[in-house]
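Human: We require from you a protein record containing the residue sequence and its fold in C-alpha coordinate form, and nothing else.

Assistant:
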Amino acid sequence: MASSDIARSAAPPVARLIEAFHRLPGIGPKSAQRLTYHLIRMPEEEANEFAAAILGVKERIILCNICANIAEGEECAICGDLQRDQTRICVVEEPLDVIAIERSKVYFGQYHVLHGIISPVNGIGPKDLKLRELISRLQDGTVQEIIIATSPNLEGDATAMYIQKLIGPSGITITRLARGLPSGSDIEYADDSTLAHALESRTEIPQSPDNSHD
Protein backbone atom coordinates (compact mmCIF):
# COMPACT_ATOMS: atom_id res chain seq x y z
CA MET A 1 0.00 0.00 0.00
CA ALA A 2 1.42 3.39 -0.99
CA SER A 3 1.90 6.12 1.59
CA SER A 4 -0.84 8.17 -0.10
CA ASP A 5 -3.30 5.28 0.36
CA ILE A 6 -2.32 4.97 4.03
CA ALA A 7 -2.62 8.71 4.52
CA ARG A 8 -6.13 8.85 3.05
CA SER A 9 -7.36 6.33 5.61
CA ALA A 10 -5.86 8.23 8.57
CA ALA A 11 -6.85 11.38 10.43
CA PRO A 12 -5.38 14.50 8.71
CA PRO A 13 -2.65 15.18 11.35
CA VAL A 14 -1.57 11.53 11.18
CA ALA A 15 -1.65 11.56 7.37
CA ARG A 16 0.59 14.65 7.26
CA LEU A 17 3.13 13.03 9.56
CA ILE A 18 3.16 9.81 7.54
CA GLU A 19 3.78 11.80 4.37
CA ALA A 20 6.53 13.80 6.10
CA PHE A 21 8.36 10.66 7.21
CA HIS A 22 7.95 9.11 3.77
CA ARG A 23 9.79 12.05 2.21
CA LEU A 24 12.90 11.20 4.23
CA PRO A 25 15.58 9.16 2.40
CA GLY A 26 15.32 5.42 2.97
CA ILE A 27 11.89 5.59 4.61
CA GLY A 28 9.25 3.55 2.80
CA PRO A 29 5.49 3.79 3.35
CA LYS A 30 5.35 1.04 5.99
CA SER A 31 8.30 2.50 7.92
CA ALA A 32 6.68 5.94 7.75
CA GLN A 33 3.50 4.50 9.21
CA ARG A 34 5.34 2.67 12.00
CA LEU A 35 7.31 5.79 12.95
CA THR A 36 4.15 7.86 13.00
CA TYR A 37 2.24 5.52 15.29
CA HIS A 38 5.33 5.18 17.50
CA LEU A 39 5.22 8.97 17.98
CA ILE A 40 1.50 8.84 18.70
CA ARG A 41 2.13 6.38 21.52
CA MET A 42 5.12 8.32 22.81
CA PRO A 43 4.63 10.28 26.08
CA GLU A 44 4.04 13.97 25.46
CA GLU A 45 7.28 14.97 27.21
CA GLU A 46 9.35 12.72 24.94
CA ALA A 47 7.50 13.97 21.86
CA ASN A 48 8.27 17.56 22.85
CA GLU A 49 11.95 16.69 23.30
CA PHE A 50 11.97 15.05 19.86
CA ALA A 51 10.39 18.11 18.25
CA ALA A 52 12.80 20.43 20.09
CA ALA A 53 15.78 18.38 18.86
CA ILE A 54 14.66 18.80 15.24
CA LEU A 55 14.10 22.54 15.65
CA GLY A 56 17.43 22.89 17.45
CA VAL A 57 19.29 21.37 14.51
CA LYS A 58 17.62 23.76 12.06
CA GLU A 59 18.13 26.81 14.26
CA ARG A 60 21.64 26.25 15.68
CA ILE A 61 23.60 24.15 13.18
CA ILE A 62 25.68 25.95 10.54
CA LEU A 63 28.67 25.10 8.37
CA CYS A 64 32.17 25.49 9.78
CA ASN A 65 33.77 28.54 8.17
CA ILE A 66 37.02 26.58 7.68
CA CYS A 67 36.16 23.06 6.51
CA ALA A 68 32.40 23.34 5.77
CA ASN A 69 31.60 20.50 8.17
CA ILE A 70 28.48 20.78 10.31
CA ALA A 71 29.13 22.95 13.35
CA GLU A 72 27.34 24.76 16.13
CA GLY A 73 29.63 27.77 15.98
CA GLU A 74 31.99 29.38 13.48
CA GLU A 75 34.42 26.45 13.79
CA CYS A 76 33.67 22.76 14.16
CA ALA A 77 35.24 20.75 16.98
CA ILE A 78 37.86 19.23 14.65
CA CYS A 79 39.08 22.55 13.24
CA GLY A 80 39.20 23.95 16.76
CA ASP A 81 41.40 21.10 18.01
CA LEU A 82 45.00 22.35 17.77
CA GLN A 83 46.29 18.88 18.69
CA ARG A 84 45.28 17.52 15.29
CA ASP A 85 47.73 17.35 12.39
CA GLN A 86 47.47 20.66 10.54
CA THR A 87 49.55 19.45 7.57
CA ARG A 88 46.95 17.02 6.19
CA ILE A 89 43.47 17.63 4.85
CA CYS A 90 41.11 14.78 4.04
CA VAL A 91 38.63 15.85 1.36
CA VAL A 92 35.21 14.16 1.65
CA GLU A 93 31.86 14.48 -0.08
CA GLU A 94 29.50 14.91 2.86
CA PRO A 95 29.57 15.49 6.65
CA LEU A 96 28.56 11.85 7.22
CA ASP A 97 31.89 10.81 5.67
CA VAL A 98 33.73 12.73 8.39
CA ILE A 99 31.90 10.71 11.04
CA ALA A 100 32.72 7.46 9.24
CA ILE A 101 36.44 8.25 8.95
CA GLU A 102 36.62 9.42 12.56
CA ARG A 103 35.29 6.01 13.61
CA SER A 104 38.37 4.37 12.08
CA LYS A 105 40.54 6.06 14.75
CA VAL A 106 43.60 6.13 12.47
CA TYR A 107 43.31 9.61 11.00
CA PHE A 108 44.05 12.69 13.09
CA GLY A 109 44.34 15.44 10.49
CA GLN A 110 41.92 18.05 9.19
CA TYR A 111 38.94 17.69 6.83
CA HIS A 112 37.29 19.57 4.01
CA VAL A 113 33.68 18.81 3.06
CA LEU A 114 32.75 19.35 -0.60
CA HIS A 115 28.99 18.97 -0.07
CA GLY A 116 28.59 16.90 -3.21
CA ILE A 117 30.52 15.44 -6.13
CA ILE A 118 30.83 16.36 -9.78
CA SER A 119 27.83 14.83 -11.53
CA PRO A 120 26.87 16.27 -14.92
CA VAL A 121 23.80 14.01 -15.02
CA ASN A 122 22.48 15.76 -11.90
CA GLY A 123 23.65 19.18 -13.03
CA ILE A 124 26.41 19.40 -10.41
CA GLY A 125 29.67 20.95 -11.57
CA PRO A 126 32.89 22.06 -9.84
CA LYS A 127 31.42 25.49 -9.07
CA ASP A 128 28.70 23.84 -6.98
CA LEU A 129 31.26 22.30 -4.60
CA LYS A 130 33.34 23.87 -1.82
CA LEU A 131 36.48 23.86 -3.98
CA ARG A 132 37.26 27.57 -3.83
CA GLU A 133 37.31 27.31 -0.04
CA LEU A 134 39.67 24.34 -0.26
CA ILE A 135 42.13 26.21 -2.46
CA SER A 136 42.16 29.16 -0.06
CA ARG A 137 43.24 26.83 2.77
CA LEU A 138 46.40 25.90 0.88
CA GLN A 139 47.77 29.40 0.44
CA ASP A 140 49.89 29.66 3.61
CA GLY A 141 51.97 26.55 2.87
CA THR A 142 50.99 24.63 6.01
CA VAL A 143 49.26 21.76 4.21
CA GLN A 144 51.61 19.09 2.88
CA GLU A 145 49.13 16.39 1.88
CA ILE A 146 45.63 16.30 0.45
CA ILE A 147 43.86 12.97 0.97
CA ILE A 148 41.01 12.57 -1.49
CA ALA A 149 38.32 10.42 0.14
CA THR A 150 35.57 10.59 -2.45
CA SER A 151 33.55 7.40 -2.95
CA PRO A 152 34.96 4.78 -5.37
CA ASN A 153 32.40 5.26 -8.13
CA LEU A 154 32.27 7.12 -11.45
CA GLU A 155 31.36 10.51 -9.96
CA GLY A 156 33.84 10.10 -7.11
CA ASP A 157 36.62 9.28 -9.57
CA ALA A 158 35.76 12.30 -11.73
CA THR A 159 35.81 14.56 -8.68
CA ALA A 160 39.16 13.14 -7.53
CA MET A 161 40.70 13.73 -10.97
CA TYR A 162 39.44 17.32 -11.03
CA ILE A 163 40.88 18.05 -7.59
CA GLN A 164 44.20 16.48 -8.63
CA LYS A 165 44.40 18.76 -11.69
CA LEU A 166 43.35 21.76 -9.63
CA ILE A 167 45.89 21.27 -6.85
CA GLY A 168 48.66 19.50 -8.78
CA PRO A 169 50.62 22.64 -9.74
CA SER A 170 51.00 23.58 -6.05
CA GLY A 171 53.37 20.67 -5.44
CA ILE A 172 51.31 19.39 -2.49
CA THR A 173 51.28 15.61 -2.18
CA ILE A 174 47.91 14.23 -3.29
CA THR A 175 46.80 10.77 -2.18
CA ARG A 176 43.59 8.81 -2.45
CA LEU A 177 42.10 6.13 -0.23
CA ALA A 178 43.22 2.65 -1.25
CA ARG A 179 40.79 0.46 -3.14
CA GLY A 180 40.01 -1.58 -0.07
CA LEU A 181 36.67 0.22 -0.29
CA PRO A 182 34.07 -1.67 -2.35
CA SER A 183 33.72 -0.19 -5.82
CA GLY A 184 30.49 1.73 -6.34
CA SER A 185 29.79 2.15 -2.62
CA ASP A 186 29.56 5.21 -0.39
CA ILE A 187 32.16 6.07 2.26
CA GLU A 188 29.52 6.43 4.99
CA TYR A 189 28.48 2.77 4.67
CA ALA A 190 31.99 1.30 4.94
CA ASP A 191 32.85 -0.58 8.13
CA ASP A 192 35.51 0.74 10.50
CA SER A 193 38.24 -1.79 9.65
CA THR A 194 37.82 -1.29 5.89
CA LEU A 195 38.11 2.47 6.28
CA ALA A 196 41.14 2.13 8.53
CA HIS A 197 42.86 -0.11 5.96
CA ALA A 198 42.00 2.29 3.13
CA LEU A 199 43.43 5.24 5.04
CA GLU A 200 46.63 3.45 6.00
CA SER A 201 47.13 2.09 2.45
CA ARG A 202 46.40 5.30 0.57
CA THR A 203 48.58 5.93 -2.49
CA GLU A 204 49.86 9.08 -4.12
CA ILE A 205 48.08 10.21 -7.27
CA PRO A 206 50.65 10.62 -10.05
CA GLN A 207 50.94 14.03 -11.60
CA SER A 208 49.35 14.46 -15.00
CA PRO A 209 51.55 15.88 -17.78
CA ASP A 210 48.85 18.49 -18.39
CA ASN A 211 47.68 20.15 -15.16
CA SER A 212 45.60 22.80 -16.86
CA HIS A 213 41.99 23.23 -15.81
CA ASP A 214 38.99 25.30 -16.77
Notes: The chain has two domains: 3-60, 81-204.
